[in-house]
Amino acid sequence: MFRITVNLMRKTARMLIPAGVAVLIGTAFIASTFLFGNAMNDSLIRQQTAIYAGADAMVLTDLPEHPTDAQTDEAYSRTVADYHLDRMRAVEGVEGARAVTVADIGLSNGARHATSHAINTGETSLLPVTVTHGDRPVDGHGIALPERVAGQLGLHVGDTVRVVPRANAAGNNAGNTDESRDLANGVEARVTGLTDDPNGAYAYDGGASILSDDLMAYANGVTDFDQVAATSVYLDLDSQADTAAIRRLLPRYSRLVDRDEADRLAVESLSANGTSVVTTFLMSFGVLALLVAALVIANTFQVLVAQRRRILALLRTIGADRRQLYASVLCEAGILGLIASLLGVALGIGLMALLCATGVMKTTGAPMRLIVTWPVIAVPVAFGMVMTVIASLGPARAATAVTPLEALRPIELTETAHRGHVRTVLSILMLAVGIASCAFGVWQTHLSAVGRESLATDHYPAVLLAAMGGCALTFTALVVSAVRWMPALMRGAGALAAATGPSAAIAHANIQKNPRRVASTGAALLIGVTLVSAIATGAASAKTTMADALATRYSVDMIATGTGMTEEQSRQVRRVEGVGRVLDAPTALRHVTDDQGHGIDVLIVGIPDLDGLAKVMHADLTGVTLNDHDVLMPRHALSGADIDFGRTHTADFAAGAGSADTGSTGAAGASGLDLTVVQADYRRVSSDHDAVAFVAASHFADGDLTEQGRILLMTADPDANPNGVAGVIDGVREALGAIPDANVTGPIAERDMWDTSIDAMMALLVGLIAVAVLIALIGVANTLSLSVIERTRESATLRAIGMTRGQLRRSLAVEALLLSLVSGVAGVALGTLFGWLGSTMVFSLYGTVAMPFEWKTNCAVLAVSALAALLASLLPARRAANTPPVEALAEA
User: Fold this and answer.
1) Would the pLDDT of 416 be above 50?
2) GO molecular function of the protein, one example (predicted)?
């Protein structure tokens, strides 16, 4: 029987191709998902551990589970000297030791300025960045610059650059006039080399400069490198290293761990990055793709059984029993599943290898590598074979029902009535549980969003999982019960189409003859369209919701701060494409205490009038007045805490330790500046200060406040710039390039990050789900092919009484359109609801959730589905139209 099965497969190989392609695509999807997860985890782990460079061991902080403030202060206030590096290097087996110190520096070369994150030098094997040109600095104020920074400053190896510590270092020496002056003016450093960050150790900072020990000490405001704060030590050890001797040199609350342990801790820390969640999320789409493939496979084997009915009847005649026929169909499915799954795995590995080799997958700051593990091969192959065999069970049972007399009779045009009471009850139960789970998740998330106690506050992942499970149950229930409700929708749509002509009337009649097959094909399309619509709706909701949330958290589109800003530079900023209104104002930093005793560092901004401020702020300032003795303050600090001046309505703005002009006198000095507080609901003008307050500019002109810097408050329209948000930000930065400490921030950058991430993920997922739609459309072709086989006599009769070939083709085209459009519209409706639900669960914690309807995407999906369905109907229609009536009647 096995030989007969193989021969039958060879004879009908062309008919097996659609099912094989469906399995191949689904298994390739799952294999690619595993490979993507492996590559992402590997990339993120390498990026996370790239800071260790070639270290074999490292010293990490090891505090008790509930440390006291004193223990925490001691653990995080260590200097290089506390680690006894010279004694460590003298221990047997220690080939290198590097204390980890950092600084943020400003760099100047004439009129060009830049900023950079800096690390200290050390043995080459222990440096997390690579010196690509020149050498690492050793001493004598040497520095190796990132290639990007060197290009920005126009520097090469051997040139000199002025290094200025950032504000954190300046504050350490505020009491020493000479040192403070040196820190403010900077020192000349020699560029010894250029660096690259191939593994993304400092991807967030755009790379890192390497400083010699003396220059690192200067950047940290101390006279000797041993006095620089150090967070840990990296060690280069050989196999015979005396680790016990190293441990005896460690300060309290430290421990020595080997590289494997450090990597393990890094992997655990990656749980917050959601790599496993991403892999699981993508895997779910692979499983759905194979579920769609299962529907296609079932239809394909129905076609095969229909075509082989005479062969099967002949086999029964010569002695084959029902069990052998049943086993033959299942064996055929198993062989098909194995071959197609292996090809799918090979395709998935090939595609991922191509993406990794071309650098397309470089999305995490480090290049992705192809990591093939056993699940990449075993899981898709096993799942593909099992799904193929399961999908063939129904057709296999149909094969056993073939009798020898079957060869003498045509196939019945309608299916026998079958009451799936168990299926109906099961789908109702799943639907009820699914809706209840969704409602529970939304309820708990809403309670958490409004600040009330709920499970989502401490167990949000569990609540989110409950809602996702509810969506899955609801959708599964609808797919399982599709045989009940989808044919009814088809009949309604067909009745409308039937009025357009005889071809449509015949299509309407034909589509009602086998509701189970119609439901199976429609469900395959329903899954794909629902997923596409859900993702499009979720993405649109995410963009709108996050844009609104950012608008409420930031009242200004963009700000730029810096000292020495001139009117000419302000005019250059106004000329940048995409920059709208600009308010140029002086600033001073002050400290204030509210009625509840909360101390707040406040950036005071001098404005000419309230109308000018209202033009650049997204805040409701209706009814707010501001005179010479008032200060306008927000109701909430940067942290979100309330700022309360409800009783006194006045505040003493003292020049505290956070102020840069601590030596000033008068009202702005130690005695402070008493102002009447006026509060309004505006948020986070700047992310660098607890709050931003506004006063009349006359306070700066009269000397009540000393100007310490300037701020530009800007409105921005990224669409007006050819390069979008990036073009606006880069244009403003270029206009302020002559200011060493210029800093450009604002929500449009954060909004651009969200939009870019959402667009990238949406493009990826829509592309992946297009696989499911493609498989579903193969199912449409299979369904129409089976319809042609079953209606051979009917088609011949219609041709004999005068129906033209064109009318016959049109009837099949209308049938395909009805299948695709009805399933598509149902999928769009369900997908939109699921998208709204998902957005509510994820984004209600950030603000009011937007619930848009994605007309563009949904209409495009419906149009593509309709066009693809028409294309799928071409071959079956051609077969039906080209068969002569006499031959068809004889064949039937």
Assistant:
1) no
2) transmembrane transporter activity
Q: Of residues 579 and 639, which shows the higher confidence score? A: 579
Which of 489, 488, 492, 486 shows the shortest CA–CA distance to 522?
486
Structure tokens given for 859: 């209409």
| Residue found under tokens 């300037």 | 710
How far, in Å, CA of 662 to CA of 666, rounded?
Answer: 11
pLDDT of 609 above 80: yes
Question: How is 274-300 classified by DSSP, letter by letter?
Answer: THHHHHHHHHHHHHHHHHHHHHHHHHH
Beta pairing class for 112-120 and 209-211 = parallel
- What is the token pair recorded at 17? 């191709």
- What is the chain's percent helix, strand, coil content, to nearest 5? 60, 15, 25
Q: What pLDDT, in 10s, does the model give residues 438-464?
A: 888 888 887 777 667 777 667 777 777
H or E element at residue 599: strand 599-607
DSSP string, 872-891: HTHHHHHHHHHS-HHHHHHH
Q: Are 398 and 72 in contact (CB under 8 A)?
A: no
77/659 Cα distance (integer angstroms)? 24
Per-residue CA distances from 884 to 289, 503, 755, 807, 879 (Å) = 39, 19, 58, 15, 10
pTM (predicted TM-score): 0.57
Whether residue 454 contacts residue 448, with contact meaning beta carbons closer than 8 Å, is answered with: yes
| Joined tokens for residue 230 | 């150090």
pLDDT in tens, 16-55: 776 777 778 778 877 877 787 777 777 767 766 778 888 8
- Give the span between the Cα atoms of 150 and 234, in whole angstroms: 28
Inter-residue contact 368 to 361 (CB < 8 Å): yes
Report the alpha-carbon distance of residue 17 to residue 24 in Å, rounded: 10
- Give the closest residue to 501 by CA, choosing from 788, 795, 807: 807
Q: Is the dihedral of CA 14, 16, 19, 20 positive or negative?
A: negative
Question: Any idea what the Cα angle at residue 338 is, between residues 332 and 344, rounded to 5°?
Answer: 130
Look up residue 14 and give its two tokens. Answer: 């062309």
Name the token pair of 774: 């493609």
Average the pLDDT over 392-409 and give the result: 68
Note whether 105 and 209 are within 8 A (CB): yes
Q: CA separation (Å) from 419 to 424, 582, 859? A: 9, 72, 36
Around 730, how many Cα atoms within 13 Å sit in the side-chain half-sphere? 8
Highest mean pLDDT among 171-175, 494-498, 753-757: 494-498
Of all helices (H) and strands (E), which one includes residue 387? helix 374-391
Q: How confident is the model at residue 271 (pLDDT cuts 50, 70, 90)?
A: very low
Q: What is the pLDDT averaged over residues 207-234?
A: 91
Q: Are residues 179 and 137 in contact, defined by beta-carbon separation less than 8 angstroms?
A: no
Specify the length of the chain in residues: 892
Taking residues 300-315, report their average pLDDT: 68
114/349: higher pLDDT: 349
The one-letter amino acid code at 183 reads L
